UniProtKB/TrEMBL annotation:
Pfam families: BPD_transp_2. The keyword Transmembrane helix applies. It is found in: Cell membrane. This is Xylose transport system permease protein XylH. It comes from Lactococcus nasutitermitis. Keywords: Cell inner membrane, Cell membrane, Membrane, Sugar transport, Transmembrane, Transmembrane helix, Transport. InterPro entries: ABC_transp_permease. Part of the binding-protein-dependent transport system for D-xylose. Probably responsible for the translocation of the substrate across the membrane. CDD domains: TM_PBP1_transp_AraH_like. Its main location: membrane. The lineage of its organism: Bacteria, Bacillati, Bacillota, Bacilli, Lactobacillales.
Length: 413
């Protein structure tokens, strides 16, 4: 190679250098869709904190936000996977009611202990997912039609099994899943729950470690990276948010109860497991590939029918978990349980950035969407707004979120 060729040859890390030198303003503009949803959550929380006179973020209300909206967060994870795969599931609310009815029935009529009852409910959820996945993946019935039929079938089954209602023993450990807290094994440090503080500190360390590791990985692989300024801002904001949430959890109880609710652990396990599936496992890459371009995915050797089946199996399993959470929360099963749950889950996904056409979406975004729905519900409830107005506002939020996604795509095009 000549001297002139050596001088003009591009450096291997030129793309990385360009990305790293990107200004904070340009970076935020390029990632407005990704980070806009987090800003929207902050704005909504601050707005209702002001309108409610500080009641929204009182420790007990903060804990109740997770306890009352756990079903949305769990279902939103499954619904996001369904939407990424270019499908939709209209039946999850009815499935939650059906599984809750089964669980209450076996506990009351068969006197099955609560652990075996949970296993039965999860098994029923998988069978429901297998049933609906069969029609979608192997018969070719569109998911909209299949799950519309499922919505009617499982609502009818829920009505047949539960009737008016089937109560669950309120003193059973099963009910504690949604209402109780982790044992206060470290005692109280002054007015604060010691275990909550330790878990919060570990969460901060994990957050910082994962962000730094991701940044280094992207640099090493020549991928787009966060600017130094934005990286620092993200770390500061993340630490402050986790720290404040830790304070609220740690001060939510007294010498008898309080701290980290058990349901938050359930949510964390579900979120962690499915983030690993989508980001680290072959199945996750196949779901994104099928959702992004089904024909190209098939040509590349992906079995799209098997992927569709797994999508609905996962949705059935998560509907089973949501049914457990719902039955635990209300301590009774009824034919009307789960009404509108599918709409809340779909709304959370679209608010959180899932694309209507499929192939796009992240679990953190869906969770933020679920939190936005939860904050709207709780904030408007504290203000005494009637349920019909709440529905109107939530509907408008969904339309605006989807419209923003479509407009952003047109601008990029």
């Amino acid at each position: 190679m000549s001297q002139s060729q050596k001088q003009t040859a591009p450096k291997p890390d030129a793309a990385t250098t360009s990305n790293n030198s990107q200004s904070l303003k340009d970076y935020l503009v390029a990632n407005a869709r990704q980070y806009g949803i987090y800003l929207a959550l902050v704005v909504i929380v601050l707005l209702f904190q002001f309108l409610t006179g500080g009641a929204l973020l009182k420790p007990n209300n903060f804990v109740a936000l997770f306890q009352q909206n756990a079903y949305v967060m769990i279902l939103a994870v499954g619904m996001l996977i369904v939407i990424i795969g270019t499908h939709i599931d209209l039946s999850v609310g009815s499935v939650v009611a059906f599984i809750g009815g089964i669980g209450a029935y076996v506990m009351q009529s068969w006197h099955l202990n609560w652990i075996l009852s949970i296993i039965v409910m999860l098994a029923i959820g998988l069978l429901v997912g297998l049933w609906q996945g069969f029609w979608v993946a192997y018969i070719g019935v569109p998911a909209f039609v299949t799950t519309l039929g499922g919505m009617l079938i499982f609502r009818g089954l829920a009505t047949h099994i539960a009737g008016q209602s089937i109560p669950v023993n309120p003193n059973s450990p099963f009910v504690a899943i949604s209402s109780n807290y982790l044992p206060n094994i470290l005692g109280f440090w002054g007015p604060f729950d010691g275990l909550s503080i330790v878990i919060g500190l570990l969460a901060i360390v994990a957050f910082v470690f994962l962000q730094i590791r991701k940044q280094r990985h992207n640099l090493r692989e020549g991928l787009q990276t966060d600017s130094s300024a934005w990286m620092l801002i993200k770390l500061i904001i993340g630490v402050l948010v986790i720290g404040y949430a830790t304070y609220l959890f740690a001060s939510s109880g007294n010498a008898q109860v309080g701290g980290i609710p058990i349901i938050l652990v359930v949510i964390a396990v579900v979120v962690g497991a499915y983030m690993f599936v989508l980001n680290r496992m072959v199945l996750g890459r196949e779901i994104y590939a099928v959702g992004g371009n089904r024909k190209a995915a098939i040509l590349s050797g992906i079995n799209s029918k098997a992927v569709d089946m797994k999508i609905f199996l996962n949705m059935g399993l998560l509907a089973g978990i949501a049914g457990i959470v719902d039955l635990s929360r209300f301590a009774s099963a009824s034919a009307q349980a789960g009404t509108g749950y599918e709409l809340d889950a779909i709304a959370a996904c679209f608010i959180g950035g899932a694309a209507v056409a499929g192939g796009v979406g992240k679990i953190p975004g869906a969770l933020v969407g679920a939190l936005i729905m939860g904050v709207l519900n709780m904030g408007l409830s504290i203000l005494g707004v009637s349920s019909d107005i709440v529905s109107i506002i939530k509907g408008l939020v969904v339309i605006v979120a989807v419209a923003y996604d479509l407009i952003s795509k047109r601008r990029k095009a």
